[in-house]
Structures are given as structure tokens and as C-alpha cells.
Write a structure and sequence with these properties.
The chain is an alpha/beta fold. The chain folds into two domains: about 5-125 and about 375-390, 2-Layer Sandwich (Enolase-like, domain 1), CATH 3.30.390.10; about 135-365, TIM Barrel, CATH 3.20.20.120. The chain is built from 14 helices and 13 strands. The chain has helices at about 60-65, 70-75, 80-90, 105-125, 130-135, 160-170, 190-200, 215-225, 245-250, 265-275, 290-305, 320-330, 340-345, 375-385; strands at about 5-20, 25-40, 45-50, 150, 155, 175-180, 205-210, 230-235, 255-260, 280-285, 305-310, 360-365, 385-390. The strands form three sheets. A seven-stranded parallel beta sheet has the order 5-6-7-8-9-10-11. It has a four-stranded antiparallel beta sheet with strand order 3-2-1-13. Strand 5 (about 155), helix 6 and strand 6 form a beta-alpha-beta unit. Helix 10 (about 265-275) packs parallel to helix 11. It starts with a strand and ends with a strand.
């Protein structure tokens, strides 16, 4: 079976509330969707979330990249099994006109195209996409099989009342882990964490996410006063341009440091391991170039004693939520798990299926073929701002 066509869409998904952190503030998420149609008519869907401040991508730029990429090798391979499909995904090499030393300037596009292919062939083979992990040679050592996963939750920088309500909801609804956004201008993080820890209780696992808020010379002074609140991890405290100096911070601070904006590819991962700049990777499917490349990064991390979480971008639709679920149930040793926020963040669901996690952040494995979601055509027509067809 071969690919017959790809259709790219840009959709603007309104958020229920403003999402604020040190790097950006947004009220909607502009996402890239890809629909892959096979020669027998089977369709699959993929999604990427281009963030210019992370990988240098934009939705319009991703479609322009796809338009300038030769697709012959993508359309001419006949796939009979998952190994063929994995080989097919490896053939997709988006055109990148700018210098790309970190190999990340097409990651959202690669993720969207790859997921659409995996979804389509999963439906054809009548197997869930999670099956890919056990078929992918580079992921054999991290392969797992779970029927249920548990997501963590997030408190953004808001006023005290909203933070209190968020924390109490999390405690009442049985969550065990929470990420708190810190480093936002004007916020007193020590006071905030004192309140949040009180509302969540002592047993809650609290980690921090600074989103590149601080320069290296101020990090110790910013983080040390927060450690008394029993935080387990600090994510991306410094800008990517200063991340090489984070190795010294690891020796000064008695808390795990995680890379996010500085972890977009295998190039970044290998450099972080060589320079000893972190204890954990934040792997996101879109940011890191798709399902398969995220598996490669997790495998590399495990082989070098680095922990990892599976993260997400606020504003992902049910397509990426379901892809994250398939990744999470099939990968071992995930320290923290983010995603499936759909109904809690999006004003409208693009998928017919609701992938939102349940009580305590728990969610079942998706066992139906492909990603396990279908698109609501009326909602797609309402939210799309661009559509472009690609054929041989």
C-alpha cells in the first residue's frame, strides 16, 4: 500500500483561558494538521504545533517547507508491515533553507506528517500506533506495555485566588504531580509556592518550569529560596544561549535540572549528555520531530542515565493527545507525564473522541487501530485558516 496524497491544514484553536509563562502568553494555538490518504482510501491524521521561539517554525512556514520538499520517495514506497512504514517515515526529509545546526527547524512538520502516516497504516493493519514502539529497533530497550497512565497537571502564573482554586481542584481530584510556572515578571515565586504547597499538601510532587526566565548568574539566587518548598525538579531555568553553563549550576544546586527549549533533537540530546548540562529531558512529540525521533531521544537518555518526561504544548488537539497516549503506554521509565488536557484547555474539540484524562489524571491505553481518533469535519471547516493539497 502506498500514499496517494497529503493535505495540509492550519487551524486556530481558541483556548479556554490565557496561558502565561516566562517565554510567551497565548489565547489560541495555531496548529498544523496533515491528512494522509492511502491508495485504497484509508485516511490518517497528524498534528504539529510550530513554536517559533522553540524550533524557529511557524504554521505557514511549515506548509511552505512541505511545498518545497520533493515527495517522490514518500509516495513511491509500497508498505506491507510496520517495518516498511518506519522506513517510509525515515525517507521524509523536509527542505530547510536556513542553517539548522540543531536539526530542529522542521520538527513540527515532521511530526505532523509522520503521525498521519502512522495513523493511516495503523488503521490499514488494524493495530494501534503504540505497536510501533515494539517494532522500532531503536526503542526495544525502553519498550513497555501499560493499560493505564497517569498525567500530571500545571499551575500557570495567575493571581492568588485562581492559583488557590487550581491547587484545591488538583488535590480534590486525586492528582499526584504538579508543575508550577515560575519566573514571570512581577510574580513573587517564593510566596506563590508557599501558598501552593499549603493548598496541595506535603505529599504532592511539585516541580518548577522557568521557561528560560533567568540568566546563569542569577539562577542560584532565584532557585535556592524555592527549594524549601520540596520541589523535585526545575525545568529550563536559563535561555538556550546560556545552557552550556548549566553544568556548573548542577554542581551548585541540590535539585534535578531539566532541559526543554534546549532539547529539540538528537543533536541537542547528544550535546547535553556530552556537556553534562541536565538530569532530565522534556520530550515533546512535536518539538522533537515526531513519535519515532522521540523514541530515539528517550533510548539515548536511558543509555546515559538521563531521566525524561513526556511533555506537551498547550493547545494540542486530540490528535497529538492520542499520539502522546500511545507513546506513554509503550515507553518505560517516564518520570513525569503531561498531555490530554483537551477539554480543560480547548474551547472546542477538533476530534469526535474526547481524549481528556479522567480522575486523578488517569487515562486508559487506546487499543483501537491507528491513533484512535477521527476528525469532526464541521469543526475543521470552522477552525481552518489554510488548506493545501500535495500529490505526486
Amino acid at each position: 500500500m502506498r500514499i496517494a496524497e497529503l493535505i495540509a491544514y492550519i487551524v486556530d484553536l481558541p483556548l479556554r483561558r490565557e496561558i502565561k509563562h516566562a517565554s510567551a502568553t497565548r489565547r489560541e494555538s495555531s496548529n498544523l494538521l496533515i491528512r494522509c490518504k492511502l491508495t485504497d482510501g484509508t485516511e490518517g491524521w497528524g498534528e504539529g504545533v510550530p513554536r517559533d521561539y522553540v524550533t524557529g517554525e511557524t504554521p505557514a512556514g511549515a506548509i511552505a517547507q512541505l511545498a518545497s520538499t520533493p515527495l517522490t520517495e514518500l509516495f513511491d514506497l509500497d508498505c506491507q508491515n510496520w517495518r516498511d512504514v518506519i522506513q517510509l517515515c525515515g525517507r521524509f526529509k523536509p527542505a530547510v533553507e536556513q542553517e539548522d545546526p540543531r536539526d530542529c527547524r522542521s520538527n513540527a512538520l515532521r511530526c505532523a506528517v509522520e503521525l498521519s502516516i502512522l495513523d493511516a497504516f495503523g488503521k490499514l493493519f488494524e493495530e494501534p500506533v503504540s505497536r510501533v514502539t515494539s517494532e522500532f529497533a531503536a526503542a526495544r530497550e525502553i519498550n513497555a506495555s501499560r493499560t493505564v497512565v497517569q498525567y500530571s497537571t500545571t499551575i500557570t502564573a495567575e493571581n492568588a485566588k485562581k492559583e488557590r482554586i487550581s491547587a484545591l481542584k488538583m488535590r480534590i481530584y486525586g492528582f499526584k504531580q504538579c508543575k508550577v510556572k515560575v519566573g514571570v515578571v512581577g510574580a513573587n515565586d517564593d510566596e506563590r509556592l508557599n501558598r501552593i504547597r499549603w493548598w496541595l499538601g506535603r505529599r504532592f510532587d511539585i516541580r518548577l518550569d522557568a521557561n528560560e526566565a533567568w540568566h546563569v548568574d542569577e539562577v542560584v539566587g532565584k532557585i535556592e529560596p524555592l527549594l524549601k518548598h520540596d520541589v523535585t525538579c526545575v525545568e529550563q531555568p536559563v535561555p538556550h544561549e546560556e545552557v552550556e553553563m548549566q553544568a556548573e549550576l548542577r554542581r551548585q544546586l541540590p535539585v534535578d535540572l531539566m532541559l526543554d527549549e534546549s532539547l529539540t533533537s538528537l543533536v541537542d540530546a547528544e550535546k547535553a549528555i556530552e556537556q553534562e548540562t541536565c538530569d532530565l529531558f522534556n520530550i515533546r512529540l512535536s518539538k522533537c520531530g515526531g513519535f519515532l525521533n522521540s523514541l530515539r531521544i528517550a533510548d539515548l537518555a536511558q543509555r546515559h542515565g538521563i531521566g525524561y518526561q513526556l511533555g506537551c504544548h498547550p493547545g494540542e488537539s486530540g490528535i497529538l493527545s492520542s499520539a502522546g497516549r500511545h507513546w506513554a503506554v509503550s515507553v518505560d521509565n517516564i518520570r513525569y507525564l503531561e498531555g490530554s488536557y483537551d477539554r480543560h484547555i480547548l474551547r472546542s474539540l477538533l476530534t469526535n473522541e474526547d481524549i481528556t484524562f479522567g480522575y486523578g489524571g488517569r487515562a486508559p491505553a487506546i487499543t483501537v487501530p491507528g491513533l484512535g481518533v477521527t476528525i469532526n469535519p464541521k469543526m475543521l471547516d470552522k477552525l481552518k485558516t489554510c488548506e493545501k493539497l500535495f500529490r505526486m
